Amino acid sequence: MDLHGFVQIRQSSVAPEPKTPALAGLQSFNPLGSACIGNKTLDDPITPRKDTFSISRPASANAPFKAIPSAILMALVFSTAALIRPVFKRWVAFLRTHAWWLYSPQLLMSETRRLGGLHSLRGVDEESLYATWFAYANSEIRYVFDPGSWFQLFVDAGRFGLDLNQSKRSQWQLGMGAGLTFLTPAGSFSVLYALGIVPGEAAGFGQSKIHIGYQARW
Fold this sequence. Notes:
Blueprint: E1 2-14, E2 26-42, E3 51-54, E4 65-67, E5 73-88, E6 91-103, E7 113-115, E8 129-131, E9 133-146, E10 149-164, E11 167-184, E12 187-197, E13 208-215
Antiparallel strand pairs: 1-2, 1-5, 2-3, 2-4, 5-6, 6-9, 7-8, 9-10, 10-11, 11-12, 12-13
């Protein structure tokens, strides 16, 4: 089991008038408060198969600069959960959920989160979906050949929304497919074939993607 939660509230303040006109209007964000709680019980952070016990440390973040002419309050909340359980001999079930929400009366497109690709909604172009909030789940059944190597069948499902100034929209996204992950002395490699599906639209192989991933181990 892997559980995490994070909350941050911060406020901007106008910087003094700079000598360089090009820097006029820049603001710095001052975090008003943040907190993170978590409990991690995975036996291996890269190729987990069963549960052990560890505690994650609290986390915080420094905010970037932003060019907006007035003070802005911003709130960020996210949470994750993952579960990995052996189900039968070499078969292992994997489930991960992730939710993220960002609020501010005034946002820039660069501050939104982007979804898609191997680490969120498979079957979608890498980081092609812009969102100010989303929730998705990755579910897999894995046949494990040896520690660190497995064949997998998966289904991803999620909903995301964009609330940016006058633009508001939300949409479901599904992805399903199969893949292979294998461990070598150089690291862990993954190759997956995924079909992206938008409910209400015709699905076809034109929406399919091949995702390739690599993780090094030191």
